Amino acid sequence: MKIGSEILSSLKISSSDRVNKAEFCCSPRTILSVPVVGAGLSGLTAARDLINAGKSVVVLEARDRVGGRVLNAHLANGGITELGAEFVGPTQDRVLNMISTLGLKTYDTYNVGNDVLWHNNTRGTYFAGASGIPPLDVPSLLQAAAVEEALDSMAATIDVSAPWTHPSALDWDGMTFGYWLNSTISLSPARFLLDLFSTSVFSAESEELSFLYVLSYIASAGNETLVGTVERLINTQDAAQAQRVEGGTQLIAIKLAESLGLENIKFNAQVRSITKTSDGYDIGGNYPVSAKQVVVAMSPPLASRIEYYPILPASRDQLTQRMPMGSIGKAIAIYETPFWRSQNLTGQALSDDGIVRATFDNSPSDASFGALMGFIEADEMRQFDAQSEDAVKAAVLQDYVKYFGPEANNITEFVLQRWDNEQFSRGGPVAYGPPTLLTRFGPALKQPVGGIHFAGTETAPYWTGYMDGAIRSGERVAQEILETN
Amino acid sequence: MKIGSEILSSLKISSSDRVNKAEFCCSPRTILSVPVVGAGLSGLTAARDLINAGKSVVVLEARDRVGGRVLNAHLANGGITELGAEFVGPTQDRVLNMISTLGLKTYDTYNVGNDVLWHNNTRGTYFAGASGIPPLDVPSLLQAAAVEEALDSMAATIDVSAPWTHPSALDWDGMTFGYWLNSTISLSPARFLLDLFSTSVFSAESEELSFLYVLSYIASAGNETLVGTVERLINTQDAAQAQRVEGGTQLIAIKLAESLGLENIKFNAQVRSITKTSDGYDIGGNYPVSAKQVVVAMSPPLASRIEYYPILPASRDQLTQRMPMGSIGKAIAIYETPFWRSQNLTGQALSDDGIVRATFDNSPSDASFGALMGFIEADEMRQFDAQSEDAVKAAVLQDYVKYFGPEANNITEFVLQRWDNEQFSRGGPVAYGPPTLLTRFGPALKQPVGGIHFAGTETAPYWTGYMDGAIRSGERVAQEILETN
Catalyses which reaction (chains A, B) (predicted)? Predict the structure, then answer.
């Protein structure tokens, strides 16, 4: 697996073009209208709209690649696999539109046959379609369905642009989602399903999350005309996991970057300070620039690691102290073929045990090889963050054999991405809200500070935490800047 | 009020000695055994023990003064007042011992007469001693007492060095303190008392705190022989607010710094990076040094703003993303005399309304002038963080008049310290634990990473959040280093 160099070469950037710390320490500052900090989808989208409006823009990226939490890996067999955000689905209008505009193609996530359920040390299978029902006892299934319905109906009352204005906001934001589940669910198989919802959507245990934040996140899984639902978050068919992108989702970021003009993106250009001057800002770091305004397109916890002069208002700083990244990894086992398909399995498994508790068929659309992807999330990821890659691999394959049989051991390659250990992510997929975050600090998420504007999927009213939300936030921040000029 | 320059002159450091960024950018690194990052009480204590053991030490302090969250202000009337940590009390053995060793004197916090209670827009007074009872209805008082007893008895079962090992740890750490109060307290006056406990001890609303963290903090309010209790946290007599220090608590830090040799402390020496080398660490910033080991004596949320190469383990980084500072300010109104004393009032008030909900008599021991100190905490502080000092002053004096009568308007000076707005604090008094912090990340609080050792009051088993805890953490970290060498 080669990540950095492959991506760089796909962007036609030679290593001699890379920004070098010493080289730039004393060079004169470039004067721009709006630099953008971060070449993830939010930053690149903001840059696109600002450039189209005639602004001079440079995207300053700490990594040697574009995409942020969206990342392709190149496999030994010549294919690719996705280590970060991977799926798109209905109501994700902005990312679907961008995919189409950039000339990329989507295809349906493989979803033919049965899903696997591993529960109480027993393996079962069930039809994967909308009518499929996990093999759990009926009272538990009814209870889980009732809880889901309750979540949806509460979520439907939330204003996704200002969840803190809800009449019950203080109450809901004062309790953990886990505690609400404790007081609502009596049957352990129902609780298992809801805990899996928490870890697979947020990469956080239910006890880490504010109940208001969870309701707000459910509400955000839609668009201006369709309110979000639990099903649209968790399902494959007609939901957030419905489709994939030919060639891998990082192509969205790469093609978007190419369309901006590659000279407008500076790599290895970590920003370390943003200093107000008499007429704008000096952006300090490996590639110093000066500008009237600046877009910070980073997750809140990482944005706080830039030094701001003068310091940011307490509301913004204390927000960033309180909004952590989830704990997430992706493990992808590569096979000669997607062998599970011949067993009438989708490759999707749900489990109450092991390091991997949710899997997907990550094979390419032509099934030229097989790929089983497993999410490692929350407590499981934290348990394995410091362990060797071999230890993780052994634990993952042990689970895959439980779910898909002994053939799961016959891998040709094993790819592991632990986002918790990435310097410029330190977790994933999204910075989440613990109790009291939204009611006390919510407005500071996207409130500009002078000429400093904040983007990132965390600031989006729809599809917070997804590629679609990142793109929406980039569009919003560009509009915000253009309206004030 | 002059803070920085006065303190600097008291430390006999001229401004030409101050470290200047440009001056040090290219100077050769100093080679040391153990640099200490942060000249608060924890860092200074660690430096003291390391120097006494023969190590070469420099304390690198970003501010132009020692003390961190301990700070004297010099008043126009020639006196001083305390803007940060202020009180000491029984079982705070380490800080009491240090005060005595440094030749400083303590005196009893003024506590003669009656306290004021402002509740439901009504002012009442009640005897301030141990037998005093706030004028609330008896059922509420009984309920509050029962809750306090329950908290104490649960706290008594906690191992303060490892709260996450308690049999109920997962359950307690999965709920907010506010939610536990919701399910335990039915009477609103009782809830008022417990909410005031939360804001005045943690500078956080009860909904921000993990219930396990609260129990652990209560347990920590003692020493190796006396388990902590709610009363020892909140009371004046025989408790954490029992005594004050002649000349102000910052004298502890100043005299400790003098005892180390002032040449061993570098001011304006913000550390920006800690980089592992083949045989130790390079400490980058305004005063670059190299060393085998390093002590980071900072609160977790600020320690994360240093860049570490290689990056810190996920367990440590994600801890720092999840442990925010409380929101706190102190407002001190200065008067010709402590006029409330002639009304048989202690100067202590508790309130359910206004910007200030807990006050103390902050006059000096000789009562040569009067000083009323009010804490501004949690939601109240956040509401006023961005407002003008005049607006805060007006709101504070309005409260003081409610509590102590119209004479409270006759101030000679008004001193305000908003810790949320301090660049090198960004809140206070302590970084607290939201739900799941201790059970998922607790061990990372003081676990060294290679030769990087962590101090700070947040890491102390006793008197976490207090000066005593800071000193304990400095002693522990020095011992940790000396034992490995």
Answer: a secondary aliphatic amine + O2 + H2O = a primary amine + an aldehyde + H2O2
